[in-house]
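Supplementary Methods. Inverse-folding protocol.

Structures were first reduced to a discrete structure-token string of length 200. This string, shown here, constituted the complete conditioning input.
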């Protein structure tokens, strides 16, 4: 096949992209138009395929969804602060945002979803931030902080020794910084406590 200027297409491709592309033996194909077929070939062999979105949420987003569901069921979700900026209590530029929280009897209770499915990075970030967050809440709000991390139940990792060790490490890392660690199975009770404390 020739281009408009009379040059063979394959020769032009080899000359122009020889350091970027490895051209295999040519095969004949029937196409109505060259540009349309090149687009099709790009979609098939070059462009990244979009994965179909999973029907089920996983990881942190699944925990956040469960938290919201339980707090809504208890009728307190609309009374809670959401996406609380840690920078308000720590230092300007701190990107951490705590999922939700509320104030009761001189204590600010904050809840943050921490998935331990993949790794322990978020647990370490939260543990690192916790002391400064507690100090900032004391100074800014004149209140104590009860920070709770909501994690998956142990059943999701118990068959894998390495992941089990990582799960326990992440849990203990948070607990040593006075973060209360609960699984999603405790959310109904947490939401019920919030309902009583917020007098709904």
């Amino acid at each position: 096949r020739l281009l408009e200027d009379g040059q063979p297409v394959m020769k032009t491709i080899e000359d122009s992209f020889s350091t970027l592309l490895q051209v295999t033996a040519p095969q004949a194909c029937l196409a109505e138009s060259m540009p349309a077929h090149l687009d099709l070939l790009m979609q098939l062999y070059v462009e990244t395929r979009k994965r179909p979105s999973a029907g089920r949420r996983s990881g942190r987003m699944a925990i956040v969804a469960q938290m919201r569901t339980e707090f809504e069921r208890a009728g307190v979700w609309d009374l809670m602060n959401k996406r609380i900026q840690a920078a308000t209590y720590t230092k300007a530029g701190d990107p951490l945002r705590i999922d939700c929280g509320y104030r009761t009897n001189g204590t600010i209770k904050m809840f943050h979803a921490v998935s331990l499915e993949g790794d322990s990075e978020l647990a370490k970030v939260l543990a690192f931030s916790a002391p400064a967050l507690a100090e900032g809440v004391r100074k800014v709000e004149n209140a104590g902080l009860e920070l709770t991390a909501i994690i998956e139940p142990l059943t999701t990792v118990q068959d894998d020794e390495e992941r089990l060790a990582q799960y326990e490490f992440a849990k203990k890392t948070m607990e040593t910084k006075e973060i209360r660690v609960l699984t999603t199975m405790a959310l109904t009770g947490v939401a019920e406590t919030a309902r009583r404390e917020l007098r709904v």
